[in-house]
Fold this protein.
Amino acid sequence: MTVAQGIFYLIAALAVAGGLGVVLARNTVYAALFLILALLAVAGIYILLASEFLALVQVLIYAGAITVLLLFALMLTRVGDLEETMVGAQWPLAVVASILLVGLLITTIATSDWPGDADGMITRIPFETLGEALFRQWAVPFEIASLVLLIALVGAIVLARDEEGDVEEAE
Amino acid sequence: MVSAGLVLLADLVLRDKHRGWLPAVALSGLGAAVIWTVTLILRDREAVAFGGTYSLDTFSIYFKFLFIGVAGLVILASADYVKKLEHQGEFWALLMLATSGMMLLAGARDLILIFVALELTSICQYALAAFVRDGKASEAGLKYILLGAIASAVTLYGMAFLFGISGTTKLVAVDGGTSIASLVLEGDPGTRAALVAGAVLLAAGLSFKVALVPFQMWVPDVYEGAATPVAAFLSVGSKAAGFAVILRVFYQGFGFGPESFISSDWSNMFAAVAAISMTVGNVMALVQTDIRRLLGYSSIAQAGNIAIGVAAVAAGATTGASGVTFFLATYAFTNLGAFFAILAISQRIGSYRIKDYAGMARRAPILAAVLAFCFVSLTGLPPTAGFVAKIYVFNAAVQSDLAWLVIVGVLNSAISAYYYLRVVRHMYLAEPEDESSFSPTPMLAIALGVTALGVLVVGLVPTPLIDAAQRAVEAL
Amino acid sequence: MEAVAQQIPLEHFLVLSAILFSIGVYGVLTRRNAVLIIMSVELMLNAASINMVAFAAYTSPAAFTGIIFAIFIITIAAAEVGLALAIILRIFRNRGTANVDEVNALKW
């Protein structure tokens, strides 16, 4: 086993462990921390794939901002303790479904001929090329994405603003 | 392009403080969009823009007009309703932005643009669904956004497979370069598994937008919880946008007919989904007591009917796909009419229970007549638009050797007749509890008139709309 | 780093992403707290991103579209999370819970 392989398997194991933690942890805050682990591991995968820019974005936005937001939501909505008392009753079914799904996906992956580079090299894409493409070829989706963020902002403000009459329904 | 103008206007709406004028501003925004589209048609019929990611063809123009019409009618119908809400400006802005997202979707032919436009519409719709300040609306919004997020993750995973196997996100290439369509044409067996997996995941994710099984759970809850005009908009707009993407991806990307080696796979998939959706929707609708939930399950069943047209691929695009586009237009008229009538009635009587609709024919004869007429159209009886649309789609299925699906469809129509006509009977034959009569507000009356007229005219003279629908799918 | 491709086949990245995706699906099916459901969805989205980036890295140099796609995924995910949390907070203020099956004025 070479160094690169070792690193890959280590990171992959961390990602899977984090993922399992997210869905299995009893304590909701632990689940959020496991999510951070999984997201950081995914950033590591991006570095292995020579996409440092994406790794950076992943760490800053995903592992940083989004998880903090999620943690806030967890703290604000906790009732009493942080334990999730019950797991849905359908968990055996869910186990079967997930295992079936992973089996199907892996079969698909194994039976397809994926196109690959002839030289077996990962091409490192310079930041400049990415930026060029993002602001030229993909300028329209980029603008729309900014609109989506604006909408989410407006929507969140409208929806979450605290006003009188909100509490009435809380029996 | 068209939506750029819309977006600017929507922004204006956001800041406008003269609240009474907001619907007018929104409507004139739509008017500007119409003029813009028409000039674009006059200048250049077939155009590709934004680096080949967006095409202005007959297909996208057909759907653009459909979305503009739907948005216009919804604005008319909801003008009075929205006056009671706080944050009116945001309501109109979200509605307009959702519409521009749909219009973008109609022309998008690149996976990235499709994804982003899809999210633009969806996020507006999540916010709209949760807009009204009561517990039910928030709850509807929560279910909607959670299922929507799951659906978009599934869609993305499907897109990742398609991108991986083809190395591009283009559905069709402008200059004969690599695209998903050209890959399908090559028919290399090594690409088959990935293409099929991508197609299945993509279809599953998109079934959320159009209310097909397996992502249909949100429909009745959102229709009941959200404001009624919003529900009307979601039921028609979201469905039309979703099917536009499905047609675009499956007919244009994966190809149809003998030259595509996976067309029979995805056709069978849609046939199965159609049969299940129709049955689930209709059977569940039988036991509903709330008229909005009834329409929710009916919408699942109708999505199944429309999916028959998608599955009828073997007959060629002009028969199967045009059935879908034609059905969507008639469904827009019919369902909007039904929702508007319900809005007018229930705003007055303050109840959405079918029981309370007793004797409505005496209290509000016009409203009851429109609602009954729309229900007849949803059932698929003559002389309505719904009848023509159903016959059209069934015919396409027969031509594609899907006779079993037609039998399922006809049986389901019989089931649906029971619950639609039960409401009609209740309105006409039962005794009202309260004799006071009422009529809709002028704006709502206009919207109602347009939809009812649309259902009737298309039912009697369907040829122009069918021609338009067939011209639309020629672009695929 | 460039030698990675020779030592780790593309399929390994794809299998990792398939596993993460399925874990996310499991979480979506079993979790009851809305915030935890969103976390599981994030896992599914990340799985899709890994696929995109892996394909982009392993296929021809011109096909870095996958990385662009991943950037869009992250952006949109942020928007979605923000809006969803706003709705969750409002429900919590009304009802005092963030569990989807206790939110049952409407039938699930």
DSSP finds six helices and no strands in chain A. Residues 164-171 of chain A have pLDDT under 50 and may be disordered. Residues 125-160 of chain A form one domain.
